[in-house]
Model the fold of this input.
Amino acid sequence: MAIGSWSFLSPIITFVLGTGYARWNDRRHIKYCADGETVIHKRDALDGLVVSHNGEPVDRITRSLVSIWNAGKGPVKPDDVVADNPLRIVLNDNERILSVRTVRCDDDVVKAEVAPSDDGSWRINFSHWARGACVIFEVLHTSSALVPKVVGTVDGFQPVKSLGRVTTGAFLPARRRWLYRLAPALSVPLFAFGIWAVAALKIPPDPRAILALLLLAPGEFLLIVYGVEFVVNLRVPRSVRRFSIDSARKQ
Done:
């Protein structure tokens, strides 16, 4: 009887599990993060001082790098995007997007481009967006917030997810950026050297412990300051972590 019941239930269980796995495997997410800097800010009213962009007066110009990628299990097609709520970059009602341009696009994001809309947002268009592929936009705007919003509805997708501000050193000068990215790798051997030195010198728990702290301090400092941030940044694609604003200027 038990064997017969199992024979009857097993196809149903297999169907349910198979359907659930197929739906899980086909789940789709659009994720994004951003980093930015204030290019210019008119803090005080001075006679003759005018801050403008293409002839339009503004009080602030902020530059943001908005990185968007398909974190789902399959590709995204244009027909998947709901026409009444397309993917787009937006700001708060009182702020303006001055311009948007594509500064980096993976080969698997076909014909990615942006176009302004009548409501002040910038619509994101594409022909094909493969799994894991990323596109980075440079957004000039008037907001003090460094992370513009990416909104829209894609059929079968969960809501667009923001990872907030992710600092990758993209705006740093070349030498500082090199040190910024090398620091996490240096922290581990420096910390290990400090532990070895303390053990080799057989420093007991007395005033000489100050020397032990000094030996451990460089590695601990790099681990705390850069190591944690490095691990957090692993949430974003490698192309985002390695991008530099210098490469965008050369385009």
Remarks:
- Residues 174-235 form one domain.
- Residues 28 and 72 are 4 Å apart (CA to CA).
- The helical segments are 2-25, 174-201, 209-233, 238-241, 245-249.
